[in-house]
User: What shape does this take?
Amino acid sequence: MNTNKSTWQLFRRGAISGLARPPAFTRSAFTAASFGVLVLMASLVGCGPGRPGPTPSSPPQAAVEEHVLTLGQGELFARRTAPPDPVASLLVLHGGPGMSSGYLLDLEQLASMGIEVIAFDQRGSGASGRPDARWTLAAYHADVEAVVDALATAPFHLFGHSWGGLLAMTYAANHPEQVESLVLFGSAPPTRDALQRADASFQERVAELRQADVIGPPPEDPEDYLAWVLPSYFHDPGFAPPGALANQPIQPQVNRATWQALGAFDSRQELSGLGLPILFFYGESDPFGRSMAEASLEALETAQIEVVWLTGCGHFWHECPLQVLPRVAGFLRQQSAVP
Assistant: This one.
């Protein structure tokens, strides 16, 4: 682990004294662009523009650090939450692209189970700037590696949600010596073709909710798109997300630029040799459809995969935390050979 203070500026360090009830959900807080969020808007929300505020869910005695890494022409904002003696280190990659790590804050509850949790805002998202003008997977991988060099100790575990799942899988394939295991939730698929099929499934879900008058016609202002379409992401369209899933706009230019840079991507070949242990979660009501999960599972044919199909859950674990968080902790402890 490198804690060179010439590279990282420590913004805050302290102990969280307990749990707090998150603020109420307000749909009017959501903003998004109409096109950019149609595909894998995984990290829908967070703690509002800028750096995340105090964690509503960090456990007692968990030390929280916030850092800024200077990288190229920009900065990356990161956050580490650790118990006194962590048994495993988990680096979490948020979805989007173009969202922030704010909605991942509830995963810091894993610290009460002995897991160190590290998350960061990806390039151009949240409180992070743009280190350079690239939006390729290689550029995102370089950012992950910079965070690893500063805050993580290899081998570590990697958690990827939606777009972050694709990023996690491909990073692990290119850095197998660093990654001990993968946890994937609602992961983006390894090919553009599978992504387009997933988007078609999502559009069907939106159409169904419109026909049932659960959501109305699409808004004229693209910044209102996410608030309008949000119920489509959940098993129960009436689900009220906790406060950590509110008040964070997407960066639509980042979303568009990234998918355009990836073009007709196909990562199946590089994933074909990935032999890591993988805990693979997928909501049975995920609006992107079961075929998106199957595309990833087929590409990971040589991995040691434990697949968990979640009932009563869509694209976010916030609907089913008791099915997810204890299982993640148990999996990581097992991989780290901790009883």
